[in-house]
Structure to design on (308 residues):
């Protein structure tokens, strides 16, 4: 790891304000909901391109996802995007969710095949009357309404993908079905993303490919998450976080510093759009965005306005 040097700092200044989006997950408890809305209200002031809300394995958070997305639309200035998967559901059931979003005024969906209800270690088995993969899901969504559709991309190859050529072919299929944007799984090697992006462009993929940035100050949690999706953690991470299990403040400072340097490195290579996995916390995302030159642009929408 190097310092945020003159080249990276110059990139921050030259590229100007980046386009960012933030990802949240629907809360399970009242306390978690309070923390989520604190994060949403703080990050709202940065005027992101959109914010997305995840969909649990096997569609386990369907109702909570819908409520959270609807509330973001009704009570904030933000543009919400709803995650949607095709796991353990028929086409009719998935289509009903899509139509509900359209009727609620939601116009952006993040379309994913999704993980099995038992987790990523279980083998995916398509519902006998359902969409078999993300490509079919994208096509189904576009048939219902003129949604903006984002899909997943994997710079280090999806755990079930045999090689990178297959990975790019799958991405192309999703684009042919109507995908408007690809958001990557989180990764830590900027050069890996740059090479992946170059290969996609050479393969004729023209839609935006947005790097996903993980904001996780808990190193043990980070290793667990990386192991589930195949993301490689550089060896120097171990050195940085060694002995800090009980030092939350230092871990948070490190996480924000790493994320800011990572984004600035990509900015120096010409990339200026980022998708932050916030884990429902505003502090790290907000600090990182401020380092990247983002300042408050909008006022929070008054809560009383949402109730009128």
């Amino acid at each position: 790891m190097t310092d945020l040097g003159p080249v990276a700092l110059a990139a921050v200044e030259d590229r100007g304000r980046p386009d960012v989006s933030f990802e949240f997950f629907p809360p399970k408890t009242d306390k978690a909901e309070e923390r989520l809305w604190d994060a949403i209200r703080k990050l709202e002031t940065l005027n992101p391109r959109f914010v997305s809300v995840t969909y649990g394995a096997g569609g386990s958070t369907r109702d909570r996802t819908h409520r959270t997305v609807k509330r973001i639309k009704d009570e904030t200035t933000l543009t919400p995007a709803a995650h949607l998967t095709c796991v353990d559901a028929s086409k009719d059931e998935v289509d009903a969710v899509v139509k509900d979003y359209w009727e609620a005024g939601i116009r952006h969906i993040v379309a994913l095949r999704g993980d099995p209800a038992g987790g990523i270690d279980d083998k995916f088995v398509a519902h006998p009357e359902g969409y078999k993969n993300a490509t079919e899901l994208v096509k189904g969504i576009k048939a219902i309404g003129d949604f903006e559709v984002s899909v997943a991309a994997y710079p280090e190859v999806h755990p079930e993908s045999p090689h990178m050529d297959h990975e790019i072919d799958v991405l192309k299929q999703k684009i042919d079905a109507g995908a408007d944007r690809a958001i990557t799984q989180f990764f830590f090697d900027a050069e890996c993303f740059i090479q992946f992006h170059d290969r996609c462009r050479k393969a004729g993929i023209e839609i935006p490919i947005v790097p996903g940035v993980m904001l996780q100050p808990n190193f043990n949690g980070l290793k667990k998450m990386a192991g589930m999706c195949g993301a490689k953690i550089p060896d120097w991470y171990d050195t940085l976080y060694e002995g800090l299990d009980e030092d939350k403040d230092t871990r948070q400072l490190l996480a924000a510093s790493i994320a800011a340097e990572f984004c600035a490195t990509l900015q120096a290579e010409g990339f200026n759009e980022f998708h932050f996995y916030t884990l429902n916390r505003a502090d790290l995302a907000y600090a990182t965005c401020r380092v990247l030159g983002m300042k408050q642009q909008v006022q929070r929408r008054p809560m009383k306005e949402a109730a009128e």
